Amino acid sequence: xxxxxxxxxxxxxxxxxxxxxxxxxxxxxxxxxxxxxxxxxxxxxxxxxxxxxxxxxxxxxxxxxxxxxxxxxxxxxxxxxxxxxxxxxxxxxxxxxxxxxxxxxxxxxxxxxxxxxxxxxxxxxxxxxxxxxxxxxxxxxxxxxxxxxxxxxxxxxxxxxxxxxxxxxxxxxxxxxxxxxxxxxxxxxxxxxxxxxxxxxxxxxxxxxxxxxxxxxxxxxxxxxxxxxxxxxxxxxxxxxxxxxxxxxxxxxxxxxxxxxxxxxxxxxxxxxxxxxxxxxxxxxxxxxxxxxxxxxxxxxxxxxxxxxxxxxx
Length: 314
Known about the structure:
Layout: H1 2-23, E1 42-49, E2 52-53, E3 67-68, H2 69-81, E4 85-94, E5 96-98, H3 99-113, E6 119-128, H4 130-135, E7 140-143, E8 148-150, H5 162-167, H6 192-217, H7 221-227, E9 232-234, H8 235-241, E10 246-247, H9 250-260, E11 268-272, H10 292-302, E12 308-310
Parallel strand pairs: 1-4, 1-11, 2-3, 4-6, 6-7, 6-8, 7-10
Antiparallel strand pairs: 5-12, 8-9
């Protein structure tokens, strides 16, 4: 009886270990939407979900809900190299983020386009600023009528906590090698010269954004500038203005990509996205629910003194 009980305990421990390994992503899998993996031509769906930031997640517990540039680029390369993948759909649910990270993803899409595979962008609830920037690399853009998109522009926030530190009796002593070394530190106001420096940084990134949209959407630069004042558009408005091609959901985008790739019949789908976390398997989640507060936290607390393609909801 004791040996039998021991066997049961060992089996239970083995099952729990397997669940843990799968949950934290030690066992790597590529999620597919059907049971016909490996059979016939496919459309790859590459998900870009959450604020766009540089690098990759430190752990699987911090990967979901943030679009890390290295991970998105890897997914695009995997889809590009997969011979069974004939077209790629970029599913975007993002308010944008880092200028450099957005450019890295954009460049990876351009490389994937060079292989001849059609690329279609599909907008979710929000595909704005940097989220729109990367979509401009696609052959075609599908937006839901109620999608919030656009926000074509650049923003940089440098806080000034000087008054607060004086109020609470804290004095910051800064030793620096040059007059501008602490300009984005946040404990004093910018000088007029420093404001001019930062404005030039913003203007340079803005010019790149306008150029990318003009090239991708085949619009005149001056026309893009008229649209690129930072305002948000609905998907319906974006289509009327030439910033989107069609109104439709993810299925419509997948079907369009399959048609562009000349895939006959219902296309097989291969999904490239974050793996579920260990806790989410038990009905709990450590994934951030990105709303106004979380975006402000990301922006104000972690992104001080950076130039961003980012839309933050009021």
